[in-house]
Amino acid sequence: MTIFIYQADAFTDQLFGGNPAAICPLDEWLPDEMMQKIALENNLAETAFFVKNDNGYLLRWFTPELEIDLCGHATLATAHILFTELGYTGDTINFDTVKAGTLVVKREGDKYSMDFPSRPPFAADLPEGLVAALGGAQPKEVLRSRDYFLVYDSEDDIQNMQPDHSLLAKINTMGVIVTAPGKDVDFVSRFFAPAAGIPEDPVTGSAHCNLIPYWAGKLNKNVLHAYQISARKGELWCELKGDRVIMAGKTVTYLRGSIEV
């Protein structure tokens, strides 16, 4: 069987920046085991698979290790491929998902905006070993949603962090978000998820479902500008709208091809 595959860099206008995602259009679902093997073979943070339905498209995401409940950059990349490679003519795409409901992506000039659920983090206890795994810097606030969420004083604290990924993988969590006020933007962040096969995710849309409501409250503003300051770096234009968050970003195509399974 031949399956078309694309790869795009999301939340950037520069090739080799942002977060790379693989995108596989399907006529019908492959067995879960096969999709997981393809994601492992691609060895990217996420591989997205989608199938057309009456509302738009059904969408699923796989890391190299497991199927994930929500992924922003691969959703952005999937919309980009539909708009630029697969002849989608509208300005809005609906993606139906099992665990995150319907996600809406709109084309707005040179950006795509995504409507995602807001997931405000709540106060949590600091798990044993997490500070050591992150290099020893003490956070000023510890919260949690799906992932642990640690707040620091400055962008330099986030930029200089050198986590031990083998220790991080032992923490009972999908991932760890670290964040601080930004120098040139409202806030910066990084995201680590070695237990999911992603030592550091370059740009993480799902993490911004937590970050946007948190910083909107702290900064008393609903429209925010953010950088995820991984080595590849990503830029997001964000807005809190009630129980939803809007994330906008740019995307560039890297690869067009096919795979044989």
Automatic annotation (TrEMBL):
Superkingdom assignment: Bacteria
A GO CC term assigned to this protein in UniProt: cytoplasm
Positions annotated as active site in the UniProt record: E46
GO molecular function: isomerase activity
Keyword Manganese: no
UniProtKB keywords: Isomerase
Record flagged with keyword Cytoplasm: no
InterPro entries reported in the protein's UniProt record: Phenazine_PhzF-like
Family named by the database record: Belongs to the PhzF family.
This protein's name: PhzF family phenazine biosynthesis protein
Lineage of source species: Bacteria, Pseudomonadati, Bacteroidota, Sphingobacteriia, Sphingobacteriales
